[in-house]
Design a protein that fits this description.
This protein has about 400 residues and is α/β, with parallel strands linked by helices. The chain has helices at about 10-25, 45-55, 85-100, 105-110, 155-160, 175-185, 195-200, 205-210, 235-240, 250-270, 275-300, 305-320, 330-345, 350-390, and strands at about 30, 35, 70, 110-115, 130-140, 140-150, 165-170, 225-230, 230-235. The chain has 3 domains: about 5-55, no CATH class; about 65-240, Sulfite Reductase Hemoprotein, domain 1 (2-Layer Sandwich); about 250-393, Four Helix Bundle (Hemerythrin (Met), subunit A) (Up-down Bundle), CATH 1.20.120. It has a 5-stranded mixed β-sheet with strand order 3-4-5-6-7, with helices on both faces. A hairpin with a 5-residue loop joins strand 1 (about 30) and strand 2 (about 35). The structure holds iron/sulfur cluster.
Length: about 400
């Protein structure tokens, strides 16, 4: 039985207790997909049982379908949340629910799961279509995004994790879901499962499919893209004030971070082609490029040599804890150091190690974006304070 977004009111819970007493002798279970499970309802009781749950607003017939989106608390209540996972889940549930009768059977049983950050409390890593919240800088504004993660297995005891494909602005995720599912229906071979489809089509084709959706209009054209789901406040824009941001200036660090993402994607293609060793080297090079972008934002004079970049990154970002994540601490930076060691020592990478290293590289690059945005916000706040002080002098 579906609990939309995993929510139930006190009245509904009291009524569920009565229903449990009436039909299943007192016991019910909560499920890992945020639903309620009644075991052993007799077939003869089903019509009455359905009327009882329908009467309390819980009779939707979409449990374990694509409409039944799982989401962690995200920015609603979690201090670690980056993007609104519940807001996105609510929107997807509404849009998919509206067209659920038209959905192709192959799509209907896919699972969508959303986490507000990489920690995966929303289980995005084991969803057919998963999302985790990140932020990206667009024209000087922080914009909520979700990393699209495809092909995770909820079945087979969560037998496989999904792979990150692209960072898409939060407000364009419903379009991304539509594109991906329509593409799946069009290109699917016979009874091909979604995971097999993703593996066969390849990440590049899906990334190309989503390419247009990674772009958003400028803030003066449509500001809605600069807000998050369910929150009318502009994401950062309100704090910065019109005209006080860095405007059109794209920093060198942002170029480097964007380049590192492209390089990591190339690494994933190498991995897809069975070239694990090359994929690992390319993923490390992508991490190094991201680190270089951060280092140069603090010390433009640093040389491009690998040793210098790593030393400066360690000194300026790791030792100072500037790069540290409030939840993961220094873990993501340590992924970078470990990858360096792995490549430097010339260790052989089997496919499993390569997959792990590429996932760690993605987390490192996401963390580099986060660190850059934090630093940028600090500088902008300092400029605002200085401007305000000068104006009132
Ligand atoms: S995934 Fe992140 S945002 Fe969601 S509940 Fe866990 S820590 Fe919080």
């Amino acid at each position: 039985m579906t609990l939309p977004l995993g929510d139930a009111s006190a009245d509904q819970l009291r009524a569920l207790a009565d229903i449990a007493r009436r039909f299943v002798k007192d016991t019910l279970r909560t499920t890992v997909e945020q639903n309620i499970l009644f075991r052993w309802v007799s077939e003869a009781d089903l019509p009455e049982f359905y009327q009882a749950i329908k009467a309390i607003g819980l009779g939707a017939a979409d449990a374990a379908t694509i409409v039944d989106v799982t989401a962690c608390p995200g920015t609603d209540t979690c201090k670690l949340g980056i993007a609104s996972s519940r807001g996105l889940a609510r929107e997807l549930r509404y849009r998919l629910g509206e067209k659920s009768l038209e959905l192709d059977a192959a799509v209907k049983n896919l699972r969508i799961k959303v986490s507000g950050c990489f920690n995966s409390c929303g289980q995005h890593h084991v969803a057919d279509i998963g999302f985790y919240g990140i932020n990206r800088n667009v024209k000087g504004f922080q914009v909520p995004h979700f990393q699209v993660v495809l092909g995770g297995k909820f079945h087979d005891n969560a037998g496989e994790y999904g792979v990150p494909i692209a960072a898409v602005p939060s407000k364009r995720i419903p379009e991304a879901v539509l594109s991906i599912t329509e593409y799946y229906v069009r290109q699917r071979v016979k009874d091909e499962r979604f995971q097999d489809f993703v593996a066969r089509i390849g990440k590049k084709a899906i990334k190309d499919l989503l390419e247009d959706l990674t772009k958003i209009p400028a803030p003066d054209v449509d500001r809605s893209y600069y807000t998050d789901w369910g929150d009318p406040r502009e994401f950062t824009l309100a704090d910065m004030g019109v005209g006080e941001c860095a405007g059109e200036v794209v920093s060198q660090a942002e170029f480097a971070l964007a380049a590192s993402e492209r390089e990591l994607f190339e690494a994933q293609l190498l991995l897809d082609g069975g070239r694990s060793q090359d994929a690992v080297k390319a993923a490390y090079a992508a991490m190094l490029h991201a680190a270089q972008g951060l280092v140069k934002s603090q010390n433009p004079a640093v040389s491009d040599g690998e040793n210098e970049i790593v030393a400066e990154f360690t000194r300026r970002f790791y030792d100072t804890q500037l790069f540290w994540d409030k939840y993961a601490g220094g873990k993501f930076a340590e992924y970078f150091f470990k990858a360096r060691e792995f490549v430097r020592d010339g260790k052989a990478a089997d496919a499993d190690r390569a997959v792990q290293l590429l996932q760690e590289a993605q987390l490192f690059i996401d963390a580099a974006h986060g660190c850059h945005n934090r630093l940028r916000a600090t500088v902008e706040t300092a400029v605002k304070i200085e401007n305000a002080a000068q104006a009132s002098a």
